[in-house]
Amino acid sequence: MKKYLALLALSVSFMSAASAQQDPKAGKILDQMSAKYQAMKAFRANFTQTLENDATKVKENLSGDILVSGQKFRLKISGQEVINNGQTVWTYMKSENEVNISDFEADEQEISPSQIYTLYKKGYKYSYVQEAKEGGEAVDVIELSPEDRNNPVFKVRLKVSKVDKSVKSWQMFKKNGNRYTFKINKFTPNVPVDATTFNFDKAKYKGVKVIDLR
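and the corresponding structure tokens:
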């Protein structure tokens, strides 16, 4: 049930980076990018995730939408809705009309999407690769590599807009041959949120089966 959240959680681990012996040019860009997103009260991103494996000839696409505010988020992807208010996580599966409730625990295996723009300060080394074009827009390409040799990810390439320091896309390369590409299709800053946005309202899901795993 946490398959797609786990994939996204792994994808956002690209933002981790070690504090010592880092490329200062890459570090400056990452700091500017991080400051941009942390200054927003909330934001929404529509994204496409592509999984490819050349050896097994696999290519799969998923589309998703995520709303983030501080440590809270609301993620919709592949028939699932994951809501996290910073303490409790609700995972709703539309096909079963079922919601699982669990305590939120931010660990290294399943990183919260709400931490995506602040995690780069530990765990990975980063370096500046080159300037490139993404959809006709100039971007800076930054490569990250994990310090932990047991990390299933061995390389990530991140593309940041040279104009406004927004994240355009990133690729995550795993040791098992899987390659994930995440592309931001639409980004909306400072979307309105309230006290009910990041909580599961049972009344809006008629007949939902509730499984409390806490």
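(Above: one complete record from the training split.) DSSP finds two helices and twelve strands in the chain.
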